[in-house]
Structure formats: structure tokens, C-alpha cells
Please model this.
Amino acid sequence: MADKITLKIDGQAVTVDKGTNILEAARSVGTSVPYFCYHPGLSSPAVCRQCLVDVKGQPKLVPSCYTPVADNMEVTTNSEKVLVARQQMLEFTLVNHPVDCPICDKAGECTLQKLYSEWDGAHTRTDVGKQHKPKVKDLGPEIVLDAERCILCTRCIRVCDEVAGQHQLEMAHRGDREQLTTAPGKQLDNPYSLNTVDVCPVGALTSKDFRFSMRVWELNGTPSICAGCATGCNDEVQHARGEIHRIVPRPNPDVNKYWMCDEGRMTYKEVRERRIAGARINGETSSVEKAIAAAETALTAAKSSGALGSYGVVLNAQATNEDNYLLVKIARALGIGRFYMAGRPERPEREDKILRHRDMNPNTTGMRAIAEWGSTGKARSTRQLADDLNSGQLKGLWILGDHVDLDEKSQAALAKLEFTLYQSPHENFLCDKMKIILPAASWAEIDGTFTNAKGMTQRARPAVEPPGEARPHHQLVALLAEKLGINADYPSARAIFFELSKTVPAFAQAQFGADMATVQLRFANSRG
Ligand code: SF4
Ligand code: SF4
Ligand code: FES
Model:
């Protein structure tokens, strides 16, 4: 027990790890202490004094975010003395604050607004004018500062210094003229800059992309996984009336802690771009049912002529494990002889050792494991796909997902194949070359799993409905399989995963992930 400390908080015995601060110790037993400048993922400068508590034997109240627990310590978090001190600090914080909540983007998720309305509610005693500061100060490509709303907590400075490893923000001037500014010669442009908006406890920092677009209490949040790279940051897709408005990080100590990169946050934009909402046969609009029937006729004919050994399927690192598994399973049942792996090309620069991975696909690890199992180690890259197309070895191809890298020569060869079936969420060059097109759901519209670069299988959940007739890849594969007389009657992605985990050795220990509800956001302060 040498590394454990036992203390009393409001008379209740609490045992926590040595080095824990009082604020976290209190939180561990459900006692909440208010705070502004503290963030569990950052250092504690104890500048706001909102988290004051009484420690027996100490002459003054102490900041609980900064003070480590000690054996036999006796802490009071709710005495008259503590509450009055906190109220005074809140009043002090509000002296020069503009209180422009009705036009503030943070309203509804602002810690200052929350604390004031939850337990203070006192009228102002100030009868002098407020100190004015710049209302719209451009800090960089993504972020605008309203310096009047800033409560000088320094969280944003610490995010840049401690998470992004770049000193881009600092404080200038003193007293009531103190204000946040960019460091000399710098702007706020690091790849993790939007984390400053998340940690800002007030509406001082706003994202240019999100500001003025939606009141936060109208948003619903669906827990999911970022599809931007192989790190697999846990995120929350925030949406209203079927439209995604922003993506924010969801804490996971083993993957992304409290953070995500700016690029990952913007992946929601591609969800609505260039969507394929209906099926096509030879360039003509069709129903999904007719397109599946056409594919079935072609594959049945190829089977009878013994051509399926020269057919191939293309798995995709952008698609879920369930999608890839079902495609491989059905291809094997049909006797399709060739397996290829596709995905977005690597990031040109190296990964940054923070979060951004060079592999810009969410599921390369899972796709490879499935391809290896399905093809007994013979799955090929898109470069080999190009070679096989150019050499005329392939007669038919069934491609799943976006980002299949083919040069012009192999694209021309592709257009000459006797059978081509393409399942895709987005329009791209392949749509002109493939005979049958099926509309697929995108990553924000599906239930399923991705396996990240560390081998962790994590569950993405559907935030919005796919457009038109689009549906998850695995449902499209199952529809065609059933037409071909192969049983593929899975009630859910979970059912496919269950079979996959029993079949593909790499997934023997993997879990599908818990059901987590979409929640309406209201003072959702999960981002610290
Ligand atoms: S801008 Fe926000 S995060 Fe930065 S110091 Fe001001 S209140 Fe704190
Ligand atoms: S690091 Fe990768 S997974 Fe994480 S937010 Fe960025 S793009 Fe998404
Ligand atoms: S949260 Fe402890 S001093 Fe600010």
C-alpha cells in the first residue's frame, strides 16, 4: 500500500494513488469541485482559484487542483468559508467579462455560465464600466479570439506547449489589461490547434469552421472513431437534423487521451461531398435491386464458365472489419481467386509521434488480417492489381470502397473487363469505368469496427442516415450473396463481428464494443 494514500474528504475516507491531487481524489468519490484552469490532461498552474478547499491545519484555503493528497489529510469542500471564497472568485472572474451569452458560441457548454447558473446567480455589484479588449482577433487559420470573454486560465497556452509541443500563445500586459496573444512571430497554426477551443472554458476561442453555425444544445452527439488515420482517435460526431456540424475528441487514455488533430475534425465534410445515392448499370440509373440482379446474373454466368478463378475482389482499409470480412467470405464461397487490398495513400510527411499517423486509413490492420486469412497470405497491393489488369490476367473485379490508386493505363484495362462491380460512398474516377455501381454508406453512417495501428479494435457508430438508397457495404454484399444462394442473413454488424472473431484468428480476443447512446448535448462538459 506504499503507493496509496488515505485521506478524508467531507468526512468520507478516500484511498487514492500517491501524487493524486485533491480535486481528482474528491471526484473519485463523486464530490465535484468547480474549476476553470485545471484540465486532467495538462499541468496545473492554479491560476483561477475556483477550486479552493479547506485542508485542516492549513492557514489558508488551498487550490485542490494543485495540492497533492497526503496521508490522514482532512479536506472540506463545502464549508461556508469555502463557498464564500469560490463565490468571490467567480464574481472576480465576471467583473470584466462581457456576459454576452445570447450571441456566444459556447453558450450551453460554457463552464462559467454553468457554474454561475448552477450555484451562484448573484447580481453584479460592479457599477463602473468594464475593461474592453478586442472582440474579434484572428489567431490563425482555424481560430478567432474574443479577448473580452477570456478568463486568463492559460489552458490554451498549455495545450499548445504540452500537447502540440509548439509555443504559439502567451499572455501580454498585466492586471485587468492582461490578454491572450500569439507569441512573437507566431500564429496559432499547429496541427492540433482546435484542441484549444475544446479546453477553453468560455467562448473566448471559437473555431472558424463551427462558429455561428449551430447552437450546441440543438446538437446530438454520437460516440464514434475518427476515420482520418490509423491512430483511431475516439471522437464524438455532433449532428442535428441529419447533418454533421463538428467532430470533437472523446477521452481514451490508451489512444488519444483528450485530443484529436485538426485534420481529423474536418473529415465530417467529406461525408456529404460527391455522394452516390443510387445504383447504376452501365451509366444508367437503376434501383439497388436491379443492380444486384444484374451482378448476380453476371457472376452466375462466370461461375458456370469457370471464369471466377480469374476474378478478383478489392478489400479496403477505409471499410470496416465486418464489410471486408463478408466480402472475403462470399468471394471464397464463390471461388473468386484473387484478393487485393486498397486504401488511401500514405501521408507524404512522417507521423508526428503525437497522434497523426502516416497511414491515413482507419482499418489497415484489420483489413490485412482478414485478407491474410481469406487469401491464405496471397492478398496483393493495388500496384499488383495494376499489373494484373495490364497483363490481362483479370477478367472481373468487385471493388469495395473509396481510394483505389490506379494509373490511366490500368484504368483503361479496367474498363475492358467482362464484369466490374463497384460499391462506393463517393463519386470518383472509378465510377466511369465500372459497369455496376452500388451506393454505399460512409463511415459516419455505419455500425462496425476498425482496428487501429496498435491492433485495438474499436467500434464506430452511425451518427446520421446515408443518402438515398445507400447502405453499409456488408448489407450490399449480403444482398448479392443471398441472390447467389449463399446464406448471408446477418441481423446486424455485431452478428458479423461475432462470426469474424470466431473465424479469423487475429480477432480471437477482440470485442465489438458496447452500445453507447447518441445523447443530446446540454452542458456536456466531457472535454474538460
Ligand atoms: S482563451 Fe480560453 S483557454 Fe485561453 S486563456 Fe482565455 S479562457 Fe483560457
Ligand atoms: S490523429 Fe488520426 S485518428 Fe486522430 S483525429 Fe487525427 S486523423 Fe483522426
Ligand atoms: S482550477 Fe484550481 S486554481 Fe484553477
Observations:
- The longest helix spans residues 288-304.
